[in-house]
Amino acid sequence: MSAGAAVPAAVLTYLAFDYGARRVGVACGNSQTRQAQPLQTIAAEGAQRFERIAQLVAEWQPAALVVGVPFHPDGAEHENTARARKFGRQLCGRFHLPVHEVDERYSTTEAIAQGARDLDAASAAILLQQYFDAMGAVTPSN
Q1: Cα-flanking dihedrals φ and ψ of residue 77, to 5°?
Q2: Which of 7, 67, 114, 127 is the most exposed place for a label (fewest CB within 10 A)?
Q3: Measured between alpha carbons, how far is 141 from 87 in angstroms, rounded to an integer?
């Protein structure tokens, strides 16, 4: 390898979560393709929920997590905004990974419009795709 050759960036994996009081949608993606894919919906609460998430974190080894945070259409916060942010802080504390928040307004509506069979996982994929899109365009390696 010549001294001037670019070293390819590491491929980073991400997990995204569409938080709900009873269910959490989960999606995955990576920094190379920047394409989000729905994984599953976790229909568990409390310790069982975090045990299932821990299994996914162990399996996928993500570099970071993405959490959807809901707002009213006018951008105002509401009860679920605080709950989703608390969930994000819990993820950060339990798994010691960076957690990025994404505005989840209309993600479920978009998942319905796309004909998703698992709305929660599809919503998580939409959130993760928004995160990837905000990172900028993929540039081909030389």
Answers
A1: -80, 160
A2: 7
A3: 36
Cα 1 to its chain centre, rounded Å, is 36
Strands 99-103 and 64-69, sheet pairing: parallel
Q: Which of 61, 47, 49 is nearest to 17 (CA)?
A: 49
Spatial distance between the Cα atoms of 22 and 65, rounded to a whole number of angstroms: 20
Within 8 A by CB and 6+ apart from 22, the residues are: 43, 45
What confidence tens digit (pLDDT) does each residue in 78-125 have?
Answer: 899 999 999 999 999 999 999 999 999 889 889 999 999 999 999 999
State the Cα–Cα distance between residues 6 and 27, nearest whole angstrom.
31
How many whole angstroms from its chain centre is CA 116? 17
Give the chain's largest Cα–Cα span. Answer: 56
What pTM, to 2 d.p., does this model score?
Answer: 0.88
The rounded distance, in Å, linking the Cα atoms of 105 and 18 is 11
From residue 5, give the alpha-carbon distance in Å to each of 10, 51, 99, 141.
15, 43, 32, 11
Q: What is the mean pLDDT of the chain?
A: 90
